[in-house]
Amino acid sequence: GRLEAVTQQMGYHPQYLDSFLKMQHYLMHMDGPLPFDCRHYIAIMAAARHQCRYLVNLHVLQFLRAGGDPQWLRGLEFIPPKLRNLNEINKILAHRPWLITKEHIEKLLKISEWSWSLAELVHAVVLLAHCHALASFVFGCGCEQDEGLGGRGSLKPLSLGNQCFCEATASNSCSQELLRINRKRSLDSCMELDSLRERMQRIHVETEGREEMRLLQQDREEGEGQGAEVGVQAECHSDPSVGLSPLADPDGEVTGATNLACYTQDPDFGYQDFARRDEDQTQVFRVQDYSWEDHGFSLVNRLYSDIGHLLDEKFRMVDGLQSSAMAKRQGCEPSVFKRGIWNYIHCMFGIRYDDYDYAEVNQLLERMLKVYIKTVTCYPEKTNSEMFDRFWKQFKHSEKVHVNLLILEARMQAELLYALQAITQYMI
């Protein structure tokens, strides 16, 4: 249940890490519309859509520490109908957010005794989008493989033994008794960023990767599709495992599911190229008509106090990260390179900016970089364990992390825009 693999990676950009941890702590552990155990279960449901064992393991443990019912961990059939009704929006947001409509919102808000309040639903939507996007980061940076037994991730794991996260980051003894007393406290709340950063280890990036790039090229050619205005969109194929290691709760009892299938329904529902949609489906989402700055921010902040400010700080922080080395290699200004990545990600979800020339995307982003970005964004569970280490040799490790942070934030904002627009349409 430790988060140090994620925070080690984000620690290459400490200002962003600080804003990320503040938002996540508020979302999971501070006062809000949803009970603490439900928050962690919703996170489990979200992470399971992408078969992200790293996040599922984390939230299963925190669900139990928050006093959650262990029976719920047997699967969706064992949870209250109110939570189970969230499954449809979870599925759509994770894979094809453009399909969200005001009818989905109305259904959740008007189901007799199992109805959601608007505030609860906004909290849940932010949780879902956060965990879907974080799963992309986990797979993109190799944290998922690092967690697995014998896995080859991009990290050199810390020698922490049986320490819990608060011990690893704050050198603070945290006994099993203390964990039982503080079941509803965040494992992250006692960490000190300076101490965490002192423990970070520089990552060794392998220098040879021609074979992997050849395999990725084959995958691209087999699954390549043409996206409107953008060009190369490719799918990489894999056979991801859905196994989940048994977990132990603070009292020592083994819990958890033997696989992630029990937390999902309709597992075959996945990402589908927006450009290939039927003509009668939803139209292109134009940011000029509904944007985060002008519409989403005020709505989410009104229904879930202060979360809008924390999300906005995180979006602004990733936009302000320095990427001069990456941009220089592409022969452009840093802001131009970052906007190309951001708009390419939004384009894959059907979101367009009228003031942007999408021909720039093909000029700025190499084909293999676009393959990587699309894989991590749209089906992160297909990211192979070698991709982060052996991909784009010209990038420094911190630059690779920066691209994955852009993926995380652009994807999260895309999901929020669709969900909040549907809520706005319902309210109107």
From TrEMBL:
CC annotations in GO: cytoplasm; nucleus
Keywords from the UniProt entry: Cytoplasm, Oxidoreductase
TM regions (residue ranges): none
Coiled coil feature spans: none
Family assignment from sequence similarity: Belongs to the sestrin family.
GO biological process, one term: cellular response to leucine starvation
Domain of life, per lineage: Eukaryota
Pfam families referenced in this protein's UniProt entry, alphabetically: PA26
Reaction catalyzed: a hydroperoxide + L-cysteinyl-[protein] = S-hydroxy-L-cysteinyl-[protein] + an alcohol
Family matches, as InterPro entries: AhpD-like, Sestrin
Protein name: SESN3 protein
Organism the protein comes from: Furnarius figulus
GO molecular-function term, one example from the UniProt record: oxidoreductase activity, acting on peroxide as acceptor
Subcellular location: Cytoplasm
